Each structure stands twice: as structure tokens, then as C-alpha cells.
């Protein structure tokens, strides 16, 4: 079976919903870590690691600048002013950690042959799932993660990315 890919450009009035959601995930993830990296740099003593952080910060800043150019092409978007409160940042950092932990534990469980280790990893996976739920509802209830409102979700992403870029 041969698959032929067209190189024709398809022009659409907006991004597709699924790619908009991926745009959200990448923007939120990178914005959160950019802020953390920038806060961490002053404490890093090793010059090689400090240089690696600086390189990473530059790369993530460039990523975010490129990504936020696509946000106006999302199916819907609105703008609102941001506050200096970092509660959303800290909650988002915890949510991203929990989500990543769930993914990593799920993969680890599938790679484990030792029954006792599998039990341990499964127990820890379940705790990571519980942490994710707690972090998600913390964010959701306070309006930091409006998961059922794509317009607000993207607006928050843009604000977070701009805040991370301005640090």
C-alpha cells in the first residue's frame, strides 16, 4: 500500500480543535517551566549547568514566541488582564508534575517484570492519579484551569507565556 502525501497548502479560517488543545498543552507546559528555570538560574553554581539552563531558557522563549502567534488562529479567543499573583503558576507546576508522573508511572508499570516492583509502581501510580485530581480541581475551582472553556484556557495560556517571556 502506498501513501501519498499532498504538499498542497490547505487554508482554513482557524486551527483545528485537536491542534488547538495541543497548542494549549505545549504553551502552558513551557511557560510554567520557563518561569521555574528563570527562578532557578541564580542558585545554580556549576557554570556548565548554568550555561545549559541559559540555552534552554533561550530555546523555550523562542518556542513560546512562535506558539503564541498561533493563538489568534484558535477557534475562539478573548483577552483579559493578568495579575501578579503566582498561585496559578504554582498550581500549574504541581498539575504538570502530577500529569507527567502519571504518564511516567504508567509506562514504568508496563516495563516491569518483577511482581513486587510492579505492585509498588502501581501503588505509586494510583497516588499520582490522586494528586493529579487534587491539583486539577484546585486549579479548576479557582479559575486557573478552565478546562471546559477553550476561550478562557487559551487566554490564560497567552497571559502565562507573556509573563514567562517578560521575566
Automatic annotation (TrEMBL):
Main subcellular localisation: other
One Pfam family matching this protein: Coat_F
Transmembrane segments: none
An annotated GO BP: sporulation resulting in formation of a cellular spore
Keyword list, A-Z: Capsid protein, Sporulation, Virion
Subcellular compartments: Spore coat
Family according to the record: Belongs to the CotF family.
PANTHER family: SPORE COAT PROTEIN F-LIKE PROTEIN YHCQ
Protein name in the entry: Spore coat protein
Organism phylogeny: Bacteria, Bacillati, Bacillota, Bacilli, Bacillales
Amino acid at each position: 500500500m502506498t501513501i501519498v502525501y499532498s504538499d498542497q497548502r490547505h487554508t482554513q479560517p482557524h486551527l483545528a480543535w485537536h491542534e488547538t488543545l495541543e497548542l494549549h498543552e505545549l504553551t502552558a507546559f513551557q511557560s510554567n517551566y520557563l518561569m521555574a528555570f528563570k527562578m532557578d538560574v541564580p542558585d545554580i553554581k556549576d557554570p556548565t549547568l548554568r550555561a545549559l539552563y541559559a540555552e534552554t531558557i533561550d530555546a523555550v522563549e523562542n518556542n513560546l514566541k512562535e506558539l503564541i502567534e498561533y493563538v489568534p488562529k484558535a477557534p475562539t479567543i478573548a483577552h483579559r488582564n493578568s495579575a501578579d499573583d503566582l498561585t496559578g503558576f504554582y498550581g500549574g507546576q504541581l498539575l504538570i508534575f502530577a500529569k507527567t508522573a502519571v504518564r511516567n508511572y504508567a509506562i514504568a508499570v508496563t516495563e516491569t517484570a518483577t511482581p513486587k516492583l510492579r505492585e509498588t509502581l502501581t501503588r505509586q501510580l494510583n497516588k499520582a492519579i490522586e494528586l493529579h485530581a487534587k491539583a486539577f480541581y484546585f486549579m479548576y475551582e479557582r479559575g486557573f484551569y478552565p478546562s471546559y472553556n477553550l476561550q478562557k484556557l487559551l487566554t490564560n495560556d497567552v497571559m502565562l507565556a507573556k509573563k514567562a517571556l517578560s521575566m
